[in-house]
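Whiteboard transcription, Tuesday session. T.W. wrote the structure tokens on the left side:
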């Protein structure tokens, strides 16, 4: 299977630049993976297609305001840093650009409370930096940092919380689990009252999620690694759902990758904390997920490959072409599909 098989033509004006208000007023493409049938709805209609005994699996990661602009102490040059991975409280692996201005021992100031020193340049070009901070680090980061919006979003985000889900809790992502952006607190309460179970997992989304597939043979792609965790409570909810014949409905590809990683490693859903580089593409046998709520993904991305593995390649590419024709909004702030 070739990477180019997953290409579709997307007019630039269909890339959503801003979120819609309210959250659940986005469009929803109902997608029957057995028949390929498509129906056009609004996201607030979703409860009509869920039933008591179903389980929604939500990723409760919270996005770090991980984009920082530092002033180099000796020259005044501006360098952009994106936090990728925490080594200890004040030591982080980062992307830095332009990299030639961020050599070992270079020092940068972000505000009167936050500065850093580059301590190492890694083989892949990423940097290790050590912060100096006057105050509680994450509070200061919240004051200084900006949301690391994907490169295809050119508009400035007016409200940081619109790039967070309403149930975000565990700080650590470099990007939002965007399928969850459509839910409101009221909608989740209504679903609970209907008898739909809610289970939370955590997978901290890395910027590798936006990394293009650069090899033509899909199977040769080197998938990035991300950290995930599942609580005992969530494991019990999911296992009970499977036993009682309910559907496990993953909200987003990150929730899917979390439960499928656990099943692949342990043969069951259980309390765990681990790293995963699971790569799901056509031919994969799903072991836990029964339905998927997801946004529309980039052409030739690992995410459209995951959707194709679940819904079938022909069905998926047809659904994307219909969505383009019907002028759905695409990517992070775009519309959603419910595949069942």
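and on the right, the sequence the group agreed on:
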């Amino acid at each position: 299977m070739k990477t180019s098989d997953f290409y579709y033509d997307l007019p630039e004006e269909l890339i959503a630049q801003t979120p819609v208000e309210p959250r659940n007023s986005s469009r929803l493409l109902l997608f029957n993976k057995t028949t390929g049938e498509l129906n056009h709805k609004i996201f607030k209609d979703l409860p009509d297609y869920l039933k008591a005994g179903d389980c929604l699996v939500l990723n409760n990661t919270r996005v770090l305001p991980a984009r920082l602009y530092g002033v180099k102490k000796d020259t005044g040059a501006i360098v952009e840093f994106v936090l990728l991975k925490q080594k200890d409280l004040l030591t982080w692996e980062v992307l830095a650009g332009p990299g030639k201005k961020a050599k070992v021992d270079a020092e940068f100031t972000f505000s009167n409370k936050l500065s850093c020193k580059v301590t190492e340049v890694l083989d892949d070009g990423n940097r290790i930096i050590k912060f100096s901070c006057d105050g509680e680090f994450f509070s200061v980061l919240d004051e200084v940092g900006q949301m690391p919006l994907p490169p295809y979003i050119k508009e400035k985000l007016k409200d940081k919380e619109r790039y967070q889900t309403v149930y975000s809790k565990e700080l650590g992502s470099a990007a939002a689990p965007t399928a969850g952006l459509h839910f409101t607190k009221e909608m989740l309460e209504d679903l609970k009252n209907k008898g739909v179970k809610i289970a939370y997992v955590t997978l901290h989304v890395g910027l590798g999620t936006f990394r293009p597939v650069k090899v033509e043979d899909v199977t040769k792609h080197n998938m990035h690694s991300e950290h995930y965790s599942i609580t005992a409570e969530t494991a019990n909810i999911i296992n009970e759902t499977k036993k009682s014949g309910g559907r496990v409905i993953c909200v987003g590809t990150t929730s899917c990758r979390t439960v499928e990683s656990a099943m692949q490693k342990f043969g069951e859903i259980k309390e765990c904390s681990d790293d995963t580089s699971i790569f799901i593409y056509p031919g994969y046998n799903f072991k836990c997920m029964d339905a998927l709520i997801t946004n529309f993904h980039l052409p030739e991305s690992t995410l459209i490959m995951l959707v194709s593995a679940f819904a079938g390649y022909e069905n998926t590419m047809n659904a994307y072409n219909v969505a383009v024709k019907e002028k759905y909004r695409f990517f992070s702030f775009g519309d959603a599909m419910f595949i069942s």
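Someone added at the bottom: The first strand starts at residue 27 and ends at 31.
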